[in-house]
Backbone:
C-alpha cells in the first residue's frame, strides 16, 4: 500500500485524486486545498501544510508558477515530493530532500471522465528507490508508464500543445464558422473522430488530405474569400503554407 | 435496385465504389477510369465515355477543376448526374439535364478503410424525384443523410479544412518536434484520441486547456524559445493569440 497526499484542486489534481481513490494499492490520506472544495470529500481536505501526515509520496499538482513556493512548504519532509507539470523541470523541487516528476500526459476537464488505464504517465526521479516507488504508484492506475527526462518532457509538452490545445482551437474555429453560417457542427464530428483515428494506421504525413496538399489553388482562393474573420483568414493562410512547405521536404 | 456508374479513380471514388459494392440495393455497373487501375475490378472499368450503359445515377468523383469538363461528356444522358465535391456548386453540372450533389463528408486515404454506416452524406438535388433517388442511394450505405445546399456545403467544407486537414497538419508538426528531439510520438496518441473524443461531451470552447487559455506567459515564452523551426514558431504564436482572443469574446 502506498500512501499519498495531493496538494492542489485543479483539473489534474481532481482526476488524479479520483483515479487513486479507485486503486486498491493506494491510500489517498490527505488533500491540501486553499479553501474547502465541494468536488472533493470534506474529511480528506486540509488547508494548512503543518497538518500534513506522514505519507510515502506528496504530489504537488498546482499551476507551474506556484510549484516552487508550495515545494518550499513541504521541503522539510523526508517524503518523496513530485510535481505533475509538463513544463517545469524537476529542479523546481530543489529545496526538497527527495524529488521527482509524475506527469500524466492527457487533457483534463472537470466535467469529462478519463480512462486512466492506458493514459501515459511520464516519470522522473533521482534514486533507484524513488524511481521504483513512482513506478509502482503509476502502475497502480495505468499500464502506460514511461521514464522521461525533464528535457524530453519539455518536448512532449510542446508537441502536446500542438496536437491537443491547438487542435481543440481549430475545433472552436470550425464550430464558429458553422454557427455563423447556420450549419450544424454535429455533421463534422465523424470527420473529427476519423482524423484522429487515422494516425493509428498511417503516419500523419501520409494521412494529409485537402486542398492545400493537392495545391488546389482555386478552392484555396475561394475559401480565403469566404472567411470573414481576419484572424481565421491568417490561420488558414499560414497552415496552408506550412502544409505545402512540409510537402516539399 | 439502383444502378450506378462512377467516374474517377481517386480516394473518394475508391471508397464510394467499395461501399456501394457491398450494398445489396446498389448495382455498380461501370467505372470510368482514364487507364486501367489495379485497385478496381478489371471487368467493370471502361475508358471511353461513349461506352457508358444506361444507369440510374452517374457519380462524377474527379478533382474540382475537372468536374465541368467531365459533366459535358455525359450531358446528353437522361440520367441523374451528381458530383461528390465539397467545394463545387451544383451549378458546375449546368450542362446536364438532371443534376445533383452526393458529398460524403469524410477524409479518405486509400490505405485506410472507412466505416460508412454513420458517415454523413450531404445531398442536393432540384426535383423531388431526384432528391428521393439520391436519398435512397445514400441510405443504402449510411444512416447519416442530410439535405445541404451548395452554400451550406461550402461552409461545411471550409470548417472541415480546419477540423481535419489543419488538425492533421498539427499532428505532422507534433510528430516532427518529437522526432527531432528523440521522443516517441506514440506517447501522444491517447492525448490525440481524447482531444477528439472530448467534444462529444463538451463544446470545443469549454474543452480548451493548456498554457494559452491559462495565459501562462512563462510557459508560452519557454515554448517559443524552444521551437527552432521558424514556421512552427509563427503557428505557435498565431494560434496562442487566437485562443486568447476567443477567450475575451
Residues:
Amino acid at each position: 500500500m502506498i500512501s499519498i497526499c495531493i496538494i492542489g484542486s485543479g483539473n489534474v489534481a481532481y482526476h488524479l485524486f479520483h483515479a487513486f481513490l479507485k486503486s486498491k494499492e493506494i491510500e489517498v490520506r490527505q488533500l491540501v486545498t486553499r479553501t474547502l472544495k465541494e468536488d472533493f470529500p470534506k474529511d480528506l481536505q486540509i488547508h494548512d501544510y503543518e497538518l500534513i501526515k506522514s505519507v510515502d509520496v506528496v504530489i504537488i499538482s498546482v499551476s507551474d508558477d506556484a510549484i516552487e513556493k508550495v515545494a518550499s512548504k513541504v521541503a522539510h519532509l523526508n517524503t518523496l515530493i513530485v510535481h505533475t507539470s509538463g513544463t517545469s523541470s524537476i529542479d523546481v523541487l530543489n529545496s526538497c530532500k527527495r524529488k521527482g516528476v509524475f506527469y500524466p500526459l492527457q487533457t483534463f476537464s472537470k466535467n469529462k471522465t478519463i480512462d486512466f488505464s492506458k493514459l501515459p504517465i511520464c516519470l522522473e526521479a533521482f534514486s533507484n528507490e524513488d524511481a521504483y516507488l513512482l513506478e509502482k504508484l503509476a502502475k497502480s492506475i495505468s499500464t502506460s508508464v514511461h521514464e522521461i527526462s525533464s528535457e524530453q518532457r519539455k518536448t512532449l509538452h510542446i508537441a502536446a500543445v500542438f496536437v491537443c490545445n491547438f487542435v481543440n482551437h481549430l475545433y472552436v474555429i470550425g464550430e464558429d464558422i458553422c454557427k455563423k453560417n447556420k450549419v450544424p457542427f454535429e455533421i463534422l464530428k465523424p470527420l473529427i473522430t476519423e482524423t484522429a483515428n487515422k494516425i493509428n494506421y498511417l503516419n500523419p504525413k501520409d494521412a494529409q488530405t485537402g486542398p492545400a496538399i493537392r495545391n488546389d489553388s482555386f478552392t484555396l482562393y475561394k475559401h480565403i474569400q469566404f472567411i470573414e474573420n481576419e484572424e481565421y483568414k491568417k490561420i488558414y493562410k499560414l497552415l496552408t503554407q506550412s502544409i505545402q512547405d512540409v510537402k516539399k521536404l
Observations:
- The mean pLDDT of chain A is 95.
- The beta strands of chain A are 2-7, 26-32, 45-46, 57-60, 80-83, 98-104, 121-125, 145-147.
